[in-house]
Amino acid sequence: MPVKILIVGGGYAGFYTARGLEKMLKPSEVSITVVDPNPYMTYLPFLPEVAAGSIEPRHAIVPLRRHLKATEVIGGKVTKVDHEKKTAVITPESGEAWTEDYDVIVMTAGSVSRTFPIPGVAENAVGMKAIEEAQYVRDRLIANFARAAALPTDSEEREALLTVTVVGGGFAGIETFAELRSLATSLIEYYPQITMEDIHFHLVEAMGRIMPEVSLETSKWVLRDLDRRDAKVHLDTQLKSAVDKVVELSTGEKFASDLIIWTAGVMANPMVRSTDFPVDERGRLTALATLQIADGDTVVPDAWTAGDVSAVPDISKTPGPGGFCVPNAQHAVRQGKLMAKNIVAVLRGDKPREYNHSNMGAVAGLGLGTGVFQSGKFVLKGWTAWMAHRVYHGLAIPMWERKWRVFGGWWNNQFLGRDIAHVERAIEPRAFFEEFASRPKPKTEEAPAEEKAAVTEADDAADASDEKTDGKTSKGKKPKTEKKVSEAK
Ligand SMILES: Cc1cc2nc3c(=O)[nH]c(=O)nc-3n(C[C@H](O)[C@H](O)[C@H](O)COP(=O)(O)OP(=O)(O)OC[C@H]3O[C@@H](n4cnc5c(N)ncnc54)[C@H](O)[C@@H]3O)c2cc1C
Question: What is the position in ligand 1's atom list of the atom closest to the CA of 364?
């Protein structure tokens, strides 16, 4: 019987584990299953550029079924794991949950946005952890320009529409902030009614600095670069409230902002609490450097973990905070690849290897033509760093088919300019259809007497008009009838 390996989460770590296993084991030896609510792996470092309209959303994701040919992909969430019994409950988007058994489990469910109970945040902010969020932000900002252009210059609504707030000054926050600012600059040329002075960008960071991944000096250069572009960074400042999209800061400053983007940190996916695996105080699965889940030094047999959901000891010369690997793609990719090798090693009775990777540095895009790169004391700023960012990430997205699409998009933009088309209403696609869709006539006997009369009158009027237009329903009559019907309900 082939060994049944269940991979929980097909993101960075899960995707590379599945690919590694596919390459090393024959279908007669192993059956690999990936469970993920999304049918794709998301290349998260591209989200800021997706939000800025520099990369097509679909190009920044890697379809699992296309690229994991020997793996069964199940669309759903793993909602419970009983490792004692080696069973996992899978809850699909539609239909009943079921229990799946396995021989070996790989826990790679990643992380989720970490928020605090700040009034208005849950209702009004959006994260930057999913491709859908990045696309929404892109469409919303572009659509807001069109809305604002039609409003008087002294309108409060106009000011809110042209105000963007990003909470969190880590890499993801700064990249998102700078990329959106760059998009806004490009949009200006299409809206003569809007000037740069009308646009307001605020980044809120609780600490006294941004981007802890680079040196203080480099982070100050980024601050100066943002300041030059009139993008305001509020250091040592906390978001106090975002009720009704009115941002209130701990400094007392208050302004309305239509787009509030939350990037203030991540935490291990809380789904691990529905398992019987050991978890540390920060909610991460505890593991050895071999990527085996472990309770202290005791290995939990046939259970592996990697990426943001795990606390993997960092045994490199430059360990992360607390001696653990930081949650980033550099680690998740390499851990995924090693984990596949280690699983095969253990299945064949060999010893697993320890994960040991020294940080290669950090590279960030800060909008078209500018970026920052730091590795040790070596720093690049501006255009060269931006090129390094594009080359590195363009080549790092898995699969040549995806790299081709990303580089192709950038190449096209080079000559055709940034694509400012948006499909904001894709989030409510049925609205177009519903607006003119015919509905069955109301059951008039259910309505009170005088409302019944109103409905009948309206129907008669509509019918008469239909006759005049040779049976074609005129657009003008439909809403009138609808209004009466809804009043009658
Ligand atoms: C905007 C942004 C920019 C970034 N930029 C960089 C960068 O430049 N460099 C860098 O090194 N890192 C970067 N990172 C961090 C990096 O992307 C993550 O560290 C990395 O994705 C972690 O990989 P993972 O496999 O642990 O999790 P993920 O890649 O997040 O994958 C987790 C998967 O698990 C799935 N899942 C969730 N819950 C369940 C469940 N219950 N059952 C089954 N599946 C589930 C999810 O759908 C997802 O597909 C960035 C992150 C963000 C958000």
Answer: 8
